[in-house]
């Protein structure tokens, strides 16, 4: 029986979503798999819609796994949350789904939010939940830069050097930049992204907002197809996987 779950986690506690052999630390995947084994004594593999990096948070990660035992959905959800009580992971929703469902390959769209604190004073409470950028950003310039990113492009300049994707062509469906007082939220949606694409995109927007180059320079960055031409990689702790559509 296949189950789908919506998961929330605080990413700074983990080495990322995926288990990594030879890397010190725990992954979100391992933590959930361990809770399932404690619940029903079954070893399973948990698959996720987004394989988030170390430090990246999630408020709407979607996963699936197969169980041999049959229990009510709420029983499984409550049991897993019980065994996850000492981890910064929470099962928000859980339901039985068709065997054809796959958390990663069935996904139609992934939604991310990047949070920026644009104030002079250092952060305390949100230190590992937002990127602190003390220099005042020109949000209108950032929005113009975003307009050049939306659509189907070759994003070779916006992917990590170790990205294993065979093609760097992706379609970004939408980018909304919302500014409220000292906080800027960048919402970006696409069916899929290249490794670190969102963080490199945000880093480029921030450099544009600082006045390091005009918004239209983004077109040159796209044309160069060279990672070195784009902006810095924004810190992981400002990024959230918020929703996955199916």
Automatic annotation (TrEMBL):
Catalyzed reactions per annotation: uridine(38/39/40) in tRNA = pseudouridine(38/39/40) in tRNA
Enzyme class: isomerase
Location of the active site: 53 (nucleophile)
Pfam families in alphabetical order: PseudoU_synth_1
CDD domains (alphabetical): PseudoU_synth_EcTruA (cd02570)
EC number annotated for this UniProt entry: 5.4.99.12
Function description: Formation of pseudouridine at positions 38, 39 and 40 in the anticodon stem and loop of transfer RNAs.
Family in the record: Belongs to the tRNA pseudouridine synthase TruA family.
Official protein name in the record: tRNA pseudouridine synthase A
């Amino acid at each position: 029986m296949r189950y789908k779950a919506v998961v929330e986690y605080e990413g700074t506690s983990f080495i990322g979503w995926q288990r990594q052999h030879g890397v010190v630390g725990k992954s979100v995947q391992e933590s959930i798999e361990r809770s399932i084994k404690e619940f029903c004594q079954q070893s399973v593999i948990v698959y996720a819609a987004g394989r988030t990096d170390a430090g990246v948070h999630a408020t709407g990660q979607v996963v699936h796994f197969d169980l041999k035992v049959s229990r009510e959905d709420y029983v499984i959800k409550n049991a897993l949350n019980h065994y996850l009580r000492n981890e910064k992971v929470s099962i928000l929703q859980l339901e039985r789904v068709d065997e054809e469902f796959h958390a990663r390959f069935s996904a139609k769209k992934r939604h991310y939010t990047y949070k920026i604190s644009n104030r002079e004073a250092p952060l305390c409470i949100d230190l590992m939940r937002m990127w602190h950028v003390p220099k005042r950003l020109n949000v209108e310039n950032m929005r113009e830069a975003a307009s050049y990113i939306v659509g189907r492009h070759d994003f070779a300049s916006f992917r990590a050097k170790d990205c294993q994707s065979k093609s760097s062509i992706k379609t970004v469906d939408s980018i909304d930049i919302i500014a409220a007082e000292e906080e800027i939220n960048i919402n970006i949606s696409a069916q899929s992204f290249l490794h670190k694409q969102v963080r490199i995109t945000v880093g480029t927007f921030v450099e544009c907002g600082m006045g390091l180059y005009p918004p239209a320079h983004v077109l040159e960055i796209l044309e160069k197809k060279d990672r070195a031409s784009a902006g810095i990689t924004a810190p992981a702790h400002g990024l959230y996987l918020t929703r996955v559509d199916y």
